[in-house]
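Late entry, evening session. Most of the bench is empty. Finally got around to the prediction I had been postponing all week. Sequence below, unchanged from the version circulated by S.P.
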Amino acid sequence: MLRNIRHRNLTKVISSCSNLDFKALVLQYMPNGSLEKWLYSQRYFLDILQRLNIMIDVVCALEYLHYGYSIPLVHCDLKPNNVLLDEDMVAHVCDFGILKFLGEGDSIVHTKTLATLGYIASEYGLEGLISTKCDVYSYGIMLMETFTRTKPTDDMFAGYLNLKLWVSKSLPNVITQVIDANLITPEEGQASAKVRCVSPIMQLALNCRAESPQERMNMQEALATLKKIKHKFLAS
């Protein structure tokens, strides 16, 4: 079934390997590695437009999984390490190891399989409830991480402080305190335009990261919002 899924922003499942000792999916090779590598390696750098394009690619993939296939699919483990970049820096969502199929008429399923800590929605981690809104939550976390270059499991987040609260406290007046310092320099002519671009991105991320699934927007709405943000940034 996974081999029948076709989208430019999903890593193609070529085949599988399965025997008594080893089980794996054979995926299309992505020469530029993962988003995580580009965010945290000292040898690589993504500018603001590249990051925005990558996050638009990711939301396109999720929109297809949630609405474009015959039944809704939930990725369940969205994070920078599961976003791979091809030779043209187009992003592809990969790793379908714990992907869940929502049956016809089902909007929620139960699971005992946990994903990566820091990216899991509360209803998933506490009750094992899976819906498309779990991917929305993870996407919100990854959106914040991509533009702050800060992991949700960073040592700075102790006690009551977390990535969401850290970002929300910075809006709207001190957003430059959380944006990746490599993106904006004071002497740069485009600094104000970049701040105007990142601020609504962080607002979108906070909406996706809402504790209640009902308060989170869906991936169709998120895609439309990001496209508008990109259009305004390019126009400026």
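Two things to note before I forget:
Residues 46 and 188 are 16 Å apart (CA to CA).
The chain has a mean pLDDT of 91.
Will write this up properly tomorrow.
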